[in-house]
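Page 37, top half.
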Amino acid sequence: MKTRVLAAALLVSLVALGFSLYAQVTRPYHPGSVWEIQFIHVKPGMDSAYKEWLATDWKKEQDAFKSQGLILGYKVLETESHSSNDFNLMLMTEAKDLASLEANEQKADAIAQQVTGSDEQQRQGYKNREALREPLGTRIAREVVLSPR
């Protein structure tokens, strides 16, 4: 009698464990790539000048990062600002995962120096762009990939 009760309890436990494992495996989503998103407020009348910088120097740097395998891709999104202090441009850089984003920081710094110049030249570039835009912050986001049902 005790053996049957133990066997029944074991069977119920195994079935419950099987259902919980099945539920974990069949989630309709999985984690995707990681995006670093910079929120930029382009100053009035400076759209063309800032986009020109994006299309030249910024793009050259992003393409160098991509060719070295540091990033997967990049995008620029423009939106309307809801106030005078709101962002109207997002610079998005896609990395494989958070670990590779962090692990490649030194490589990215070295490539940036090759493409855009020394630290001093980069600082001067930041100062020059102050007249064009105001960076409002940066966020890291993980893409959620939805699987078909």
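Page 37, bottom half:
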Amino acid sequence: MGIVKRGRKTTLRIGRKAAILGFPIITLALGVLWLPWLPDQLDMHWGADGRVTLRAPTAVALLIVPAIGALLGFGLLALGHRWRSRFEGNSFQLFERSLVGLQCALLIVHLAVLALNAGFAIQPEMIGSLVAAIAFFGAGLLMRDADRNPLLGVRTRHTLADATVWEATNRRVSLWLRLAACVCLLGVIRPDWALYVILGSALLIAVDAHFYAARLYRKRHPDDG
């Protein structure tokens, strides 16, 4: 039974690494499939006012997101393995899942940008809101049960000094992030609200996490402000 469980864990671990490193190839392949519907140059970036600020030849544009995905996947995975000893409990597995989620988000961005350039009725703000909602919700799920580690979770002086403060703060932020994901979907319905909703949600969560962790730490350690 123990051998079966270890084998299953090994298979899952290999599967996560394959997904992290394989998604850029999938992203590139799906981009190539869009070629018949794409113009010679693609809009790649938009300013806060909705105006296009970056265009690129289609052949180059199709490589940008897969290249970013490959660099982030290889880079963060290598960094995680270098710091492996600093991951407590289940946090390294959650870190690998977060990288899979990152690759999924990049794939969604890639396909949405291609759809926009192909003439679908999509606004850049709608893409940003959808990605933010997915990122907030995914981060919320991962942070809910993450043990202390060097990359994932609310890392402040107070959370790193006390395991109970770490757990309570990350569970609180996990809930706020999942609620924020629902709020960010308003940006899909009302694109003109998107930037304010995303930035406002992130700022409020960050401020609340900082002060909550500090308050809880002082309550548990009154002699160590």
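Margin note: Strands lie at 41-46, 52-57.
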